[in-house]
Each structure stands twice: as structure tokens, then as C-alpha cells.
Description:
Elements: E1 12-14, E2 17-19, E3 31-37, E4 42-61, E5 67-83, E6 89-96, E7 99-100, E8 104-107, H1 131-142, E9 148-152, H2 158-166, E10 170-175, H3 178-190, E11 198-202, E12 217-219, H4 222-225, H5 233-238, E13 246-251, H6 259-268, E14 274-278, E15 281-287, E16 319-325, E17 343-345, E18 348-354, E19 368-375, E20 381-388, E21 392-393, E22 402-404, E23 408-413, E24 416-421, E25 427-432, E26 442-449, E27 452-458, E28 464-465, H7 469-472, E29 482-485, E30 487-492, E31 498-502, E32 510-519, E33 522-528, H8 531-534, E34 540-541, H9 543-546, E35 552-558, E36 572-574, E37 582-587, E38 592-600, E39 604-612, E40 618-625, E41 641-643, E42 646-649, E43 652-655, E44 661-663, E45 675-676, E46 680-685, E47 687-692, E48 699-700, E49 714-716, E50 719-722, E51 738-743
Parallel strand pairs: 9-10, 9-12, 10-11, 12-13
Antiparallel strand pairs: 1-2, 3-4, 3-20, 4-5, 4-6, 6-7, 6-8, 13-15, 14-15, 16-51, 17-18, 18-19, 19-20, 21-28, 22-23, 23-24, 24-25, 26-27, 27-30, 29-32, 29-34, 30-31, 32-33, 33-35, 35-36, 37-38, 38-39, 39-40, 41-42, 42-43, 43-44, 45-46, 46-47, 47-48, 49-50, 50-51
Amino acid sequence: xxxxxxxxxxxxxxxxxxxxxxxxxxxxxxxxxxxxxxxxxxxxxxxxxxxxxxxxxxxxxxxxxxxxxxxxxxxxxxxxxxxxxxxxxxxxxxxxxxxxxxxxxxxxxxxxxxxxxxxxxxxxxxxxxxxxxxxxxxxxxxxxxxxxxxxxxxxxxxxxxxxxxxxxxxxxxxxxxxxxxxxxxxxxxxxxxxxxxxxxxxxxxxxxxxxxxxxxxxxxxxxxxxxxxxxxxxxxxxxxxxxxxxxxxxxxxxxxxxxxxxxxxxxxxxxxxxxxxxxxxxxxxxxxxxxxxxxxxxxxxxxxxxxxxxxxxxxxxxxxxxxxxxxxxxxxxxxxxxxxxxxxxxxxxxxxxxxxxxxxxxxxxxxxxxxxxxxxxxxxxxxxxxxxxxxxxxxxxxxxxxxxxxxxxxxxxxxxxxxxxxxxxxxxxxxxxxxxxxxxxxxxxxxxxxxxxxxxxxxxxxxxxxxxxxxxxxxxxxxxxxxxxxxxxxxxxxxxxxxxxxxxxxxxxxxxxxxxxxxxxxxxxxxxxxxxxxxxxxxxxxxxxxxxxxxxxxxxxxxxxxxxxxxxxxxxxxxxxxxxxxxxxxxxxxxxxxxxxxxxxxxxxxxxxxxxxxxxxxxxxxxxxxxxxxxxxxxxxxxxxxxxxxxxxxxxxxxxxxxxxxxxxxxxxxxxxxxxxxxxxxxxxxxxxxxxxxxxxxxxxxxxxxxxxxxxxxxxxxxxxxxxxxxxxxxxxxxxxxxxxxxx
Length: 744
């Protein structure tokens, strides 16, 4: 919740927000505020109140609040769109009756998309072929209004014009006839949209000069104008985006293109389709499914099992750039703070970041956490949303704050979790932390499985919010405190209904945030009953305190009912010498729960302990000595990657069947940690490196960029994604941009 206090005549800085003088009382709002960047020149503010009241905001260029927006209709879910100038600091506060919230700030710089369509008449003299009707039917039927549209056979550009007028699509037309290319450019330039909304390129339609998977939507003007099918259906399909790309091809009623011609062309290209022939005209729709064998990355370590490895099968030893560009460094948390990894599912990349204000706020700068959604196949921006106090750092000693489902992105902040609609970023679902045991706690852990969302209640100081030098000191080095929680719970992720909660009686234990994993129908976690840990006041406790020799346990709950399993060896008493980090993972191949961590012996020794998930009995243990001491580049922090029969970790790989450790030193630098898929490992050795599974020698992918300081190479959706995470790096790399690679 958004909570602030104010005293008359005094200006304070609290929670990273500028609190301005106000005569009215400062109040709380239970949900929000969220700042949603939509179109050029405007942002939308969202918040929620407990009772139905009018929606009212005072805002202006920082520090002024000289403008006002209002919707007088009483409601509990509020949404107001306000006009803004580009690249400007804005302040705002929400008015509820005679009271107001504290003043918040945002920075109005983002990818503005295609911009506002110019006013004025069509440059085309008439529309005898019903292009306007065709464009509207295409958009209504496909539902695709953002991303890239290819006009395959652009003719003189009239279909492109009508589509641009009605959507936010970035449109590229391809045309073989040079005379028609010139005419299209002239018309579209007269409409003031050429090079801004629409581009027309000359070239062979049988061999388009663009990468695979470029288009969210493919249409054809030639089919409407000439009644013929241009180029090759196979070539058209090559550039259609997987996992939801649509080709909608045909003509309005009265056109000359025949069904036999259209369907024969598609069949010859080996393309599946469905056809309608009615009052709206003749149209064939091609839906491109997901590529075979793709993986996804929906949680911080790929999945709720924390394997740090996806099921991706398409990565090859030879990769090429598919696209590069946004997001750049402006909204990325400084890499030294080791922030949350990007997520990817169904061709959508979710990149967590932070708002770009910073200059007027003291260290640390919580401000707003930023969620940015991009198309994995062509880099198109879909939406940006700011969520207050959400940008956690030093995640390696904490847990992820974002989880991705097919329909919603779940973002934990304060004592809430908001579900953002994947399609548009709308903050649609609002969940709260159930307050268990008499304390008011924040939402800590977040994971999504099926229709359930799992969370934990943690003290307000347990997670570090926002980047700062002081937080860098909590992201590296020895014996650094780890974030903890007091209880676990599960809710229905759509309705919000509480399904169960678990807390050791008292409360008499703390739960280690990076020591929570889900496997099958169970949730596993490491719990410390050490009295010093239990009495801690800020939720951050050193591993050496929690692992005191006789007070730590591995616990198993049924994730459906929340019931603790107490049969066999459960809960498993632990006696581990861990000092620096501790991680919990689940291996589905052998049904093992695996604890990993490090301690000084006197240099760093990595330990793994495997337990049979069924009865909690010990399966094996493994340890190996790295020799490093007092590491400042993550030498003591490496997270395990579970692929096939092995755990891959710093300097060694461990056989999951018996715990045997074999020397396996990748050619890589110290910073960051590894990620993996079924065929490769990924990591940083100055620049991005790809390692065929089993090989210790990496292949450099791009010398111009540098990955971040934790997980930043994501194998998913048939691609290798490297969203920008080098912000703050002073090393000699020429580009700070996102890059996506595809098999060559």
C-alpha cells in the first residue's frame, strides 16, 4: 500500500517520494498509484479506493501542481489520463474528498510508439476498392493493433494508409513495381506519415530483405487491387511472427480475387489457413503457432523449481542477430545492484527496470519499479507501467518480484501484488498479503503455477528497493545478510481468494527467501528456528546465523492444501556450514530437492545437498573447494544450473545421480552467474558467451555489448534474449542496448 505521513509546513522525503506541503490531511490509498505509459503525449494513472469516490488528480511539471484532471463519477477503481510533455519530470497527487495523498513523481520519457495520426483528408482521390472497410475488418478480426505489419505487395500504399489511421502498427510495405513504390511514397508523404508510420521498400517479394519472424500482421494490397497473389506464400510465412502472428489475406466484397486462386497460392506454399467468404469479402487467415521445442522463462530462475535452465531446444552453436534496440540503459537498474532478470513467454519479453528520475531523490532511490513489455521477435514495445516501491535489487540473496503467466504479469510491491494484463499492461488484478500472526508485513516471494499464486509475508526492510551504492555493498562480498519471510500463503491468482497460509507457531521461525522452490504438487523451503534470526527486526539475517548447526529444517508443504508433510523424514533437520548464500532447487528428473551454498574453508567451498522429495531421505552430498577468498565479483555467489544429469556451478559440474563432482571451469569472468537450456550454457566473459553443453570453451556472440551482473541471457521462444542490463557499466563496450539472437 502507498503510505505516507505529513506535518503542516514541513517538506519530507520518504520512501523515495517528494512529499509537498499540503493543508489537507495526507491519506492512504489501498492500491497504487500506477503510472501507465500509453501513447505519445499522455499517461494514465490508476489507483483504487475502499469506497466509491470521484477520481481527481492534481499534477504538473515538477515541483508544480498547477493542473487538475477529474472524473466526477464515484467509483473504487480509478483511471485518469493526463496530457504530458515529453522527457519531463512530473509530480502528481490524488485527491480523495478534502484529503490528498503525498506527491509522487514520474519521468515522461518512453518509447512513444507511432505517434498521433495527422489530421486531414486522405491523400488518395477515392476508395472504389473499399480499402477503409478492408482495414477495419482486418483489425477487428485479428485484434492486432500494435507491433509490425508487413504489406506483402504494397501497390500504391492505400491499405497501409488505412491501417495506420486506425492502429498503432508500424507498417512496412514491400513492392516489386518501382512505379508503384514511388506513387505509394508520394501519397504517404502527402499524408505526413511516410517514414514515421509507414515505409515502402522496393524489392523481390520472393526474397524479402528482412529477418525471419518480423511481422505480427501480414496483409496484401496487391490482392485487393489486382486480384492476384504476389510472391510466394512460403516467403510470406517465413517473416510471420511465431506464437500469435497472423496473416490476413484477401479482399473486400466485390473484388476480383477468387477463392481458388487464394487458397491454391497458400497450399502451394505449404501454409495452413482458414477461409471465410461472406458479406465482408473473401479472406484467408493464417495463424502461426509457437515454434517446436521452445522454452520459456517465467520466473527469476526460469521456473518455480529454480533450475536456472529452460526447456529450449532451438539454440545452435552458430547464432545471428535477429534484432537489437530498446530498452536501452535509461530505465535499467544499475547492473552492479544485481537486479531481477527479464522474463519471456509466448513471444513477449517482460523487462523489469526503474523510473528515470533519480536526480531529485536521495540514495537509495526506490521511486517506481518499471515493467516494460516488448515483442521477442521484432522488438516492438507494447507497454510500460510504473509500480511504486517494486524495483528490488541484490536479488541473489532475495527472491524475484515478478512472475509471468500467459495472461498476466504479477508484480509484488509493498504489501500488494498487482496483475498487469500481458496484452496492454492494464493493472487489472489486485492481491494483498494476508496478515498472519499479528504483524503487518509486505509481499515477499512470488510464484505462479496454474491458477494459483504463491507468496510470503516479509518485514518491510527485508528486500532492498532501488539502486544505490549502499545496495551494491549488499549485493557482493562475504557474510552478507539474506532476505527472510515469516510465513507462506497461496491465493487464487484471478479471484484473489486465500487458499491457505503456513506459519510455524509463535511465530518461531524465519523462511529463507532464496530457499523456496516448487516441484510437482509440493512447495519446499528452508526454515531457521534460530532465536536470533526469529527476533530479527528488519527481515535480513546472515546465513551463518540461520545455519547455526541445530535450528534449520527443510520443510515440505502440499501446495494445493498448504498441509505440512510430516511423514518419512519430513521436516528434514539440517546441519549445514553455509555462510554466504543458500539456494533451493528442485530436479524433476530424479525428484530431488537440492540445497546449494558456500562457506569459507578457508577459501570458498561450494556445497550441494540432495534429498529425495518423496520421503526426505538424503540422496547424496557434494562439496568442492574453489580457493578464492574475500571475493568482490561474485566468486561466492554462483547459482546452480540444472540441465539433464548435471548441476553446473562455478568450476565444477555435479552428477545428479550420485553427487560426483568433476572439474568444469568455463572460460568466463567472475561476475554474473550462468543460465542454461537443454543444449547450452550461457554466461559472461567480458561479452556474451555461448557454451555447448559439455564444453568449457565459449563462443563470443557480440563484442559490442556486455551482459549484466547476474542472470541476463535468456533462452526462450526459440531465441537467445539479452535484454539490456549493462546500465552503469564504465567498461569499454560500444552499445547499451537489448539484443536478440536466432539460430543461424
